[in-house]
């Protein structure tokens, strides 16, 4: 019997020890906007984790790997792990996953995680977080005012606070000023937001969360600047439901406006520009106002893109007309904030008078001479005639001299061309060309000089030399 137990003991200690693979989460219940971290662990030597892109439809936000080596009872144990981060919005069961460990498949156990609806703070709590909105229902293009109010009892030590920001698809939250105040029991911080929508419908603004404890930063500034090494705790606000109604008649602009069109002048000359400015002032969603298109017959129009801020909107034009023209009225439709009805605004047409530029009359030489002659007194006309005769004679002499010089140059060139054609040998041609001092002949003279003094045999083209002399005449 002892022998049997001994053999069994030897068999157990000699059998391979299988690696262990587990799955765990950082928490089995969660509040809205909290992240769940799923971690797969194995102490095998070679571990291949599965590729996980989502868990039950919730996208994996990030992954990370880690290794931990420990020595237990003299034995070295290596643990490998991979973590997957996701953000669910309701209760679910994380499925089992298969991991390849040392060439063998190992499967984890499913894990249930539970969504907990947050309990909002109430009057009398140590910490109170609440949201208030002045208009739970408003038109597209309008804005509502949201207040986020956080209260801390005066009897509590100041902890560091981290407050989540409101965030909803198709809603825009513009942060305004922060105010600090106090009442008999609480220190109070109020954050103000302007809320606008890019689409209509019903929207749920989920509870905001205030994390109280030793966090990285204090969004409230010096008011909560003291730090304590306490366990962080979370406080939740109420949720809100907002309804954004579409504007009637397919309108896109909401507010209270006025419109004006103005020009820098109402009279101009042909070819000069008239500068036009269209301005819309008031209160509303200026960013959604589209550019005006302007068309005027027999006029060229240049336009800039509109510019705007929270106070107003304007667009500029430059108009060049060939004749009188009228700038038409600009029409602007919107949903009026005060009357809660459609309203149309229009500018007045503007008449522009265009004056044609005076062109000087063209005169012939004979007309000019006659006009000059008529202005000269009778007694001075003889002197005038002599002056004209002298000018004519001078022009004729200049023409004759030019013709004579041209003919003389042609005769000289003909003689020179004859010498070039009849020249025998490079030396005689060099002597003929050297006195000419022509830039075009420099390469030829260098070739002739190389043939004469360096014994080279470069071919000289007399036809190109003649063409160069003729082109210079």
Topology:
Layout: H1 2-14, E1 21-25, E2 29-30, E3 36-42, E4 47-48, E5 54-55, E6 58-59, E7 62-72, E8 75-86, E9 92-94, E10 98-101, E11 104-107, E12 111-115, E13 127-133, E14 137-139, E15 144-153, E16 160-163, E17 171-182, E18 186-197, E19 201-205, E20 209-213, E21 233-236, E22 240-245, E23 254-263, E24 267-269, E25 273-284, E26 299-303, E27 307-308, E28 312-321, E29 325-327, E30 331-336, E31 342-346, E32 350-355, H2 365-375, H3 381-422, H4 426-433, H5 442-453, H6 462-471
Helix pairs in contact: 3-6, 4-5
InterPro entries: BatD
Signal peptide: 1-19
Transmembrane segments: 384-404
What's the short version?
Helices cover 20% and strands 40% of the residues. The chain is an alpha+beta fold and 473 residues long.
Distance between the termini: 137 Å
Name the average pLDDT: 82
How large a portion of the residues is in β-strands, by DSSP E? 35-45%
Might you state the CATH topology name of the largest domain? Immunoglobulin-like
- Rg from Cα: 49 Å
Overall geometry: flat
Unreliable spans are: 1-17, 215-230
Main pleated sheet: 7 strands, mixed
**Helical proportion, percent range:** 10-25%
Question: How many domains?
Answer: 4
Give the number of DSSP strands: 32
Per CATH, which architecture of the largest domain? Sandwich
- Output the number of helix runs: 6
Walk me through what this model shows.
This is BatD protein. The chain crosses the membrane at residues 384-404. Keywords: Membrane, Signal, Transmembrane, Transmembrane helix. InterPro entries: BatD. The protein is built from six helices and 32 strands. It is α+β, with helices and mostly antiparallel strands and 473 residues long. It folds into four domains: 2-115, Immunoglobulin-like; 127-246, Sandwich (Immunoglobulin-like), CATH 2.60.40; 253-355, Immunoglobulin-like, CATH 2.60.40; 381-471. Strands 23, 25, 26, 27, 28, 30 and 31 form a seven-stranded mixed sheet that branches. A hairpin with a 2-residue loop joins strand 7 (62-72) and strand 8. Helix 3 (381-422) runs antiparallel to helix 6 (462-471) and helix 4 runs antiparallel to helix 5 (442-453). The longest helix is centred in the last third of the chain and has 42 residues, at 381-422. The radius of gyration is 49 Å and the shape is flat. 16% of the residues are buried.
């Amino acid at each position: 019997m002892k022998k049997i137990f001994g053999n069994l003991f030897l068999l157990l200690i000699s059998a391979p020890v299988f690696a262990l693979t587990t799955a765990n989460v950082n928490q089995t219940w969660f509040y809205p906007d909290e992240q769940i971290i799923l971690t797969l662990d194995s102490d095998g030597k070679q571990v291949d984790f599965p590729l996980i892109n989502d868990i039950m439809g919730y996208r994996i936000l990030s992954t990370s790997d880690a290794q931990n080596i420990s020595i237990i009872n003299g034995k070295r144990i290596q643990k490998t792990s991979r973590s997957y981060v996701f953000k669910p919005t309701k209760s679910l069961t994380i499925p089992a996953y298969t991991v390849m460990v040392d060439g063998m498949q190992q499967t984890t156990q499913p894990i249930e995680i539970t969504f907990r609806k947050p309990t909002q703070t109430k009057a009398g709590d140590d910490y109170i977080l609440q949201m208030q909105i002045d208009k739970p229902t408003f038109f597209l293009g309008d804005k509502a005012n949201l207040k986020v109010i956080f209260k801390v009892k005066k009897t509590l030590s100041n902890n560091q606070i981290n407050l989540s920001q409101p965030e909803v698809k198709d809603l825009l939250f513009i942060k305004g000023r922060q105010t600090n105040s106090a009442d008999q029991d609480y220190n109070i911080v109020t954050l103000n937001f302007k809320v606008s929508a890019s689409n209509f419908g019903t929207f749920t603004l989920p509870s905001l969360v205030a994390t109280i404890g030793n966090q990285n930063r204090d969004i409230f500034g010096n008011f909560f600047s003291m730090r304590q090494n306490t366990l962080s705790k979370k406080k939740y606000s109420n949720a809100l439901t907002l309804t954004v109604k579409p504007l009637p008649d397919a309108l896109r602009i909401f507010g209270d406006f006025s419109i004006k069109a103005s020009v820098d002048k109402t009279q101009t000359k042909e070819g000069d520009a008239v500068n036009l400015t269209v301005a819309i002032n008031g209160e509303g969603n200026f960013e959604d106002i589209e550019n005006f298109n302007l068309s005027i017959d027999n006029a060229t129009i240049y336009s800039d893109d509109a510019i705007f801020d929270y106070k107003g909107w304007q667009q500029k034009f430059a108009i060049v007309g060939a004749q009188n023209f009228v700038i038409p009225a600009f029409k602007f439709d919107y949903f009026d904030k005060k009357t809660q009805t459609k309203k149309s605004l229009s500018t007045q047409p503007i008449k522009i008078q265009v004056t044609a530029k005076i062109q000087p009359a063209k005169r012939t030489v004979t007309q000019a001479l006659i006009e000059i002659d008529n202005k000269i007194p009778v007694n001075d006309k003889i002197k005038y005639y002599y002056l004209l005769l002298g000018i004519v004679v001078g022009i004729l002499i200049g023409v004759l001299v030019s013709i004579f010089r041209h003919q003389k140059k042609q005769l000289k060139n003909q003689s020179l061309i004859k010498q070039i054609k009849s020249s025998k040998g490079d030396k005689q041609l060099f002597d003929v060309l050297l006195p000419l001092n022509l830039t075009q002949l420099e390469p030829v003279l260098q070739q002739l000089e190389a043939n004469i003094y360096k014994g080279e045999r470069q071919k000289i083209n007399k036809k190109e030399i003649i063409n160069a002399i003729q082109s210079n005449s």
